[in-house]
Amino acid sequence: MGRGKIEIKRIENATNRQVTFSKRRNGIFKKAQELTVLCDAKVSVIMFSNTGKFYEFTSPTTTTKKTYDQYQKMLGIDLWSTHYERMQENLRKLREINNKRRREIRQRMGQDLDDLSLQDLRGLEQKMADSLTVVRERKYHVIKTQIDTYKKKVRNLGEIYGNLLLENDAKCQDHPHYGLVDN
């Protein structure tokens, strides 16, 4: 009995899709290995699953980097230069952001204020006033929490003291020679 023809479309069931991916991945890797052995070809296969997992197969005599380099040489393009340029651009942006943040920190510490205009100084003053308000609110919240905790502890200690006095009075009534003595 032969295999039926299937319609090529996305498999909706996630479990079935993962099983199919795994089986087909193994089949492709097997074919790549057969091609390497039978034809002495240099083969490199790279796959990413929909979960982002990385799978690769390379011929025993080569590495993925060697395959990329050979591919670049054959096509006459440089795959790494565009990637390097993007990384350099990203690094430049991050350095710019870092320098801006460092300058803001220095300005908030009262340094590096000479090149600021009156409007910039007012803006900085407003930011610092807002920050001071937030810090004060937090400080008052912490103090209030500590006071409330202290009051609860004092109340609990008062209750414990009262309970101990009641217990002592009850014992004193049972045994008159036990009791509290004034001074």
From TrEMBL:
Predominant localisation class: nucleus
Any Gene Ontology biological process: positive regulation of transcription by RNA polymerase II
Taxonomy of the source species: Eukaryota, Viridiplantae, Streptophyta, Embryophyta, Tracheophyta
Organism annotation: Nyssa sinensis
Stretches assigned to the K-box domain: 84-174
Protein name per the record: Uncharacterized protein
Stored CDD domains: MADS_MEF2_like
Domain MADS-box: 1-61
Keyword flag Hydrolase: no
Keywords, in A-Z order: DNA-binding, Nucleus, Transcription, Transcription regulation
A Gene Ontology term for the protein's cellular component: nucleus
Subcellular location: Nucleus
InterPro entries in alphabetical order: MADS-box/MEF2_TF (IPR050142), MEF2-like_N (IPR033896), TF_Kbox (IPR002487), TF_MADSbox (IPR002100), TF_MADSbox_sf (IPR036879)
Single GO molecular function: DNA-binding transcription factor activity
Cross-referenced Pfam families: K-box (PF01486), SRF-TF (PF00319)
